[in-house]
Amino acid sequence: MEKLQKAATLFLFLSLISFLANLSTAAAATSPAVFVFGDSTVDVGNNNFIPDAPKANLPPYGVDYPGRIPTGRYGNGFLGVDFVAMAAGLRSSPPPFLSLSSAVQGRQGVNFASAGSGVFDTTGSYVVTMTQQIKDFSTFAGNLTAAKGARSAAVFLSKSLFYVSVGSNDLFAFDTVLIPGNSTQKDEIVAAVLPQFADQLRSLYQLGARKFAVVGTAQLGCVPFVRTRFPGGACSPDLNDLPLRYKTATRALLGHLAMELEGFRYSFSDFFEIVSHIQSDPPKYGFTELAAACCGSGRLNAEGPCTPNSTYCGDRNQYFWWDASHPSQEVYRLGARLSFYGPRQFAYPVNIHSLLKS
Fold first, then answer.
1. Is 315 known to be catalytic?
2. Distance CA 113, CA 132 (A)
3. What span, in angstroms and rounded, lies between the C-alpha atoms of 358 and 338?
4. How far, in whole angstroms, is CA 243 from its chain's centroid?
5. I need a labelling partner for 141 at 20 to 30 A (CA). Which of 86, 111, 181, 323 fits?
6. 181-193, pLDDT tens digit by residue?
7. Residue 305 in contact with residue 324, Cβ under 8 Å?
8. Is residue 40 flagged as an active site residue?
9. Are 285 and 14 spatial neighbours (Cβ–Cβ below 8 Å)?
10. 206-228: per-residue pLDDT in tens?
């Protein structure tokens, strides 16, 4: 076991060195700005400014973030969007929209995401809905046009990266009503969510977005709090089948939009496939725990929330899950690397690096 852990540690170290080396050569794929939309997988602190919204701005969240600061990110450190932003040429991840006091602070992009939000306005409570996130961006784009002129603003936005990670909360909402093995029901759920998401992407396009990095939903049936309901901590096959169908439909939707909207380009980050790949050989990536959360309480450390009074694991790079429903920083790091530089198996039809060069 000790030899295996040393080998895994060496692999992670070499992977990190390779990733950082790629970051230093990312100039050819530099994005002037990154604009972020979605839920807790990409919220870097907007919910901190909403009184009754769910928050992650207390320790031990952020224990591995520089300075051990709980920024509002739902994780122990950086999120995938942070790694992607740096790979895209930015010094740091775009700031939360609700933290800005001037438009100048958003010159390299803005993060509009809000933990708990979904494609539907009814998903989540006391959060910034996707509808409102797009309205906030419309305000930003209007100010940008006023400051730079219509032509310069349009060119700037057309070269920027629009990073969208949303949909998981909408699918989770159907968790308790899923009929085991009922394919028709799952297809109907997907058919209900997808048109709304399509309209949101079209709205961003109409506001000037051209390069979209869309993150697919992963295996929701394997998150720790869902596993607590199944014997032996097993995954829910039906709650895994639903996001599989949704990601397949999302890929098809993006292909359709690319034909419908002139200049629409995209990279689909297939997190369902990325997670499957990592979990098929955990030791290769240094993971020794796939089911339990690092921070929390109760069975699988997932029956209670991660709070300042919670105990948390010391070997966080070996845990796939940070809390009851969010991945660890190491998962986000690997996912970002495969999304940004990976083959079509993980990033379709091109990876984010190629999207930015186009």
1. no
2. 10
3. 19
4. 14
5. 86
6. 999 999 999 999 9
7. yes
8. yes
9. no
10. 999 999 999 999 999 999 999 99
